[in-house]
């Protein structure tokens, strides 16, 4: 839902007076917006550090995406309180396909990037960003240890469902169960991704047919049926330091063209990523904020997404990923 307050310089308040039965209009000007830095920093072992820097904008300010990019900030990376590097700015172009008008828009953005790669050592990192027009903002984060999977189980053709709108069409869901050994020293969250390959009938060639590179949503299975979680994030709040069995249901429509009734797996690769709970809260809040603004990266007031950045807006994201390969 769009809030019209984002586009009006004045807020019109209608006050009803029950006694006099009259209507009075009161005009209240919005307070002047003071732009602040918006930081998205990304830290991962064996990778360089990337930082996106922009500025916030006012509720009645008409802006373009590129106008909000801050290209001349000073971005410093600290490791355990010691300056590690000052990150240079690298201009980039990002294509964005708008399916509702069937065209592609090119955003001329940019990022700040380190020359050094982070290690898996237990260090604390801080990203400090300063600019003469927008002040200084910073965020602190630590690198997580790689997640540990103790087992993966796949049940092919776990359930067959019929399309309620077309009873002649049915599809199959397979069940994937992943056992995660949670690190008791870390307060974290997890996301999962999946890639599979199966043998095509007749030729026995291996065919890549299923790939989920980003995130798959967990499934909740009960004797009464099943349902899917609201999003793909799994917090370790209820099972910190224990082994947890996570269920996933996914469709196997990709092999229908071969007219076979079951999947003959060759390889299944399961990826698991550890992320901080702050990122989960930030991502969930961002999905709500996008309903009130045409630009999702840079927050607008009065709708603001709070992250873990001090002196500005945004979030410092950390992650650590591991893979488990299941072969028949």
Characterize the structure shown:
There is one protein chain. The protein is built from 1 helix and 22 strands. 4% of the residues lie in helices and 53% in strands. The strands form 6 sheets. The protein has a 5-stranded mixed β-sheet with strand order 7-8-4-3-21. It has 328 residues and is mainly beta. It has one helix at residues 277-289, and strands at residues 10-17, 22-29, 37-43, 48-55, 74-79, 82-87, 89-98, 103-117, 124-131, 135-142, 148-162, 170-181, 189-199, 206-212, 219-222, 225-228, 234-235, 243-251, 265-275, 309-310, 313-318, 320-327. A hairpin with a 3-residue loop joins β9 and β10. The radius of gyration is 25 Å and the shape is globular. Residues 1-20 and 255-260 have low confidence and may be disordered.
Radius of gyration over all CA atoms, rounded: 25 Å
Spatial shape: globular
First-to-last CA distance? 48 Å
Number of contiguous helices: 1
SSE run: EEEEEEEEEEEEEEEEEEEHEEE
Please count the beta strands (DSSP E, at least 2 residues each). 22
**Overall pLDDT confidence:** 78
* Structural class category: mainly beta
Helical percentage: under 10%
Reported for the largest beta sheet, the result is:
5 strands, mixed
Strand proportion, as a percent range, falls in over 45%
Which parts are unreliable, with pLDDT below 50 for 5 consecutive residues or more?
1-20, 255-260
Strand order of the largest sheet: 7-8-4-3-21
């Amino acid at each position: 839902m769009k809030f019209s307050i984002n586009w009006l310089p004045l807020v019109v308040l209608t006050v009803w007076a029950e006694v006099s039965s009259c209507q009075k209009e009161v005009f209240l000007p919005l307070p002047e917006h003071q732009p602040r830095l918006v930081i998205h920093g990304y830290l991962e072992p064996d990778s360089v550090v990337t930082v996106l820097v922009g500025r916030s904008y006012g509720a009645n300010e008409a802006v373009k995406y590129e106008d909000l990019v801050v290209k001349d900030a000073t971005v410093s990376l600290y490791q355990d309180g010691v300056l590690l590097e000052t990150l240079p700015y690298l201009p980039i172009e990002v294509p964005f396909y708008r399916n509702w008008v069937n065209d592609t828009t090119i955003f001329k953005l940019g990022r700040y990037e380190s020359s050094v790669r982070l290690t898996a050592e237990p260090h604390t990192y801080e990203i400090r960003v300063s600019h003469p027009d927008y002040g200084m903002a910073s965020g602190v984060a630590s690198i997580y240890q790689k997640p540990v999977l103790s087992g993966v189980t796949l049940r092919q053709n776990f359930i067959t469902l019929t399309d309620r709108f077309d009873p002649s069409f049915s599809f199959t869901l397979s069940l994937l169960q992943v056992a995660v050994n949670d690190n008791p020293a870390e307060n974290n969250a997890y996301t999962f991704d999946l890639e599979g390959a199966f043998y095509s009938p007749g030729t026995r060639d291996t065919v890549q047919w299923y790939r989920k590179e980003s995130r798959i949503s967990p499934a909740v299975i009960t004797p009464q049926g099943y349902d899917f979680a609201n999003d793909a994030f799994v917090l370790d709040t209820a099972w910190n330091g224990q082994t947890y069995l996570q269920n996933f249901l996914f469709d196997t429509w990709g092999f229908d063209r071969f007219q076979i009734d079951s999947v003959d797996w060759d390889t299944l690769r399961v990826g698991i990523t550890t992320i901080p709970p702050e990122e989960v809260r930030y991502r969930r809040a961002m999905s709500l904020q996008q309903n009130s603004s045409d630009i999702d990266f840079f927050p607008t007031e009065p709708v603001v997404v709070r992250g873990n950045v001090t002196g500005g807006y945004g979030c410092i994201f950390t992650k650590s990923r591991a893979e488990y390969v299941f072969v028949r």
